[in-house]
TrEMBL record:
Pfam families: 7tm_6. InterPro entries: 7tm6_olfct_rcpt. GO terms for biological process: signal transduction. This is Odorant receptor 13a. The chain crosses the membrane at residues 77-106, 135-162. It is found in: Membrane. It is a multi-pass membrane protein. GO terms for molecular function: odorant binding; olfactory receptor activity. Keywords: Membrane, Olfaction, Receptor, Sensory transduction, Transducer, Transmembrane, Transmembrane helix. GO terms for cellular component: membrane.
Length: 209
């Protein structure tokens, strides 16, 4: 990321090339920011995971388990979709560009090279020549996979946590419907059920906070 920033700011003069590099470069920058945010919020993430684990241990009714399982499957589907979409999209873009070949003039010598998605400042590594060109393309693919994984991880955590909360709220809605039925039937356990609903609602609110 830093060599590419130096390339854009110090080496490249063509505005069109600079603009074409800004898209992939911004992707790398956002991946770095996402990684930093995940690290800084690691304690909160760990607490949310423990909260989810406790919710699964507390559930007793089969109907509630089915509700939680249904929304957990939706969360996993969204996480899987994010992984496939992000990895395939960026990899296809990087590989398609790397498969092309351009001809450049270095001094009096004409040579060909594979362009990089994020070019490197030539004062660090001159990627115009082999094998530096091929090695840095492989490094770029590896870094692309890592950055994508960070972004996918952040999106997947958000999706799984949100769907878990939605499942808990759906359980509360079901409990309230049962409570109304019990009130209509003058069920003596209605007050105990109302207490359980209020306590669980407070627990769900703590999950959001």
């Amino acid at each position: 990321m830093v060599p590419c920033l130096l390339y854009v700011s110090l080496e490249e003069k063509d505005i069109q090339i600079k603009l074409s590099v800004m898209g992939p470069l911004s992707h790398w920058i956002m991946g770095t920011i996402n990684y930093w945010l995940l690290l800084t919020r690691s304690d909160d993430i760990r607490e949310c995971v423990r909260h989810m684990e406790t919710d699964w241990k507390l559930v007793r009714r089969i109907d509630d388990q089915e509700v939680m399982l249904r929304y957990a499957k939706i969360g996993r589907f969204i996480a899987g979709f994010c992984a496939v979409f992000m990895q395939s999209g960026t990899f296809l873009f990087v590989i398609a560009k790397a498969m092309t070949s351009i001809t450049i003039l270095v001094g009096n010598v004409t040579t060909s090279m594979h362009p990089m998605t994020c070019p490197i400042y030539s004062k660090f590594i001159d990627t115009r020549f082999s094998p530096a060109n091929e090695i840095m393309l492989a490094v770029e693919l590896l870094s692309c996979f890592i950055v994508n994984s960070i972004t996918v991880g952040a999106c997947s955590l958000a999706a799984v946590f949100a769907m878990h909360a939605y499942g808990q709220l759906s359980m509360l809605f079901s409990w309230l419907n049962n409570l109304v039925s019990d009130e209509d039937k003058k069920n003596e356990y209605a007050e105990q059920k109302l207490t359980a609903i209020v306590e669980h609602h407070l627990r769900v609110l703590r999950y959001f906070i």
